[in-house]
Amino acid sequence: MNIRDFEYLNALGKFLNFKKAAQYCNVAQPTLSIQISKLENYLGCFLLERTTRRVNFTPLGLQILEHSQIILREIDEIKTIAQQSTNNNIKTFHIGISDTLPEYFISYITTTIANNEPNFKLNVTIDKPEALFSLLSSMSLNLLVISAAKCPDNFISASLINFPANMQQPSITGNNEHSISTLSTYSEIKSKICFRSGDKNIDNYLHIGYLINDSIDIVSKKQMTY
């Protein structure tokens, strides 16, 4: 049993299809299938119910899949710690973004941070708010960007400036300047950041919020001149 086994299992959990899972893992389908069978033999139980069209997990398989996902997240965290030890200037943040927010706004947020903070590395998870709150509670995520819905009482939230209608998005320029891209018509979006109380990185999270707010404000003012 090794890390690759967990990656194969996680891919099957994602796609429920051997062909797609193999493509995702960049291996041949027989390789993935054989390795999963070896894992089942090693554990002494069936993880999957195989059909001609679809893969279904057994109840025990679902439990093991959940633990394998936790293991892979911990491995990512170990890699992050190792990377930070070799380059203390790079700060990695695991950010969750609600899937209720439009895709163009999600792109705007990540692009804005990349433009202004090259030393911030973002690992982004997009999911339903309930799932993100659970990951934030378990410390799998550092910070959430969600719609204006209320955060649970055990978290701290800070509102972002409303994303205006007819906002133009910044494109990555390689420096701290914003460039204007194609005009699109949007509805106004209300959102906020959310994080754990007592987190040692609160100042960084608030800084990210300020970056997003400043970007919306600056680009909005530029747009008014057009």
TrEMBL record:
Keywords of the record: DNA-binding, Transcription, Transcription regulation
Residue ranges occupied by any HTH lysR-type domain in the UniProt entry: 1-58
InterPro entries the UniProt entry points to: LysR_HTH_N, WH-like_DNA-bd_sf, WH_DNA-bd_sf
Stored Pfam families: HTH_1
Listed SUPFAM superfamilies: Winged helix' DNA-binding domain
A cellular component annotation (GO) from this entry: protein-DNA complex
Gene3D superfamilies assigned: Winged helix-like DNA-binding domain superfamily/Winged helix DNA-binding domain (1.10.10.10)
GO terms, molecular function: DNA binding; DNA-binding transcription factor activity
Keyword field contains Transcription regulation: yes
Assigned protein family: Belongs to the LysR transcriptional regulatory family.
Protein's name according to its UniProt entry: DNA-binding transcriptional regulator OxyR
Organism (species): Providencia burhodogranariea DSM 19968
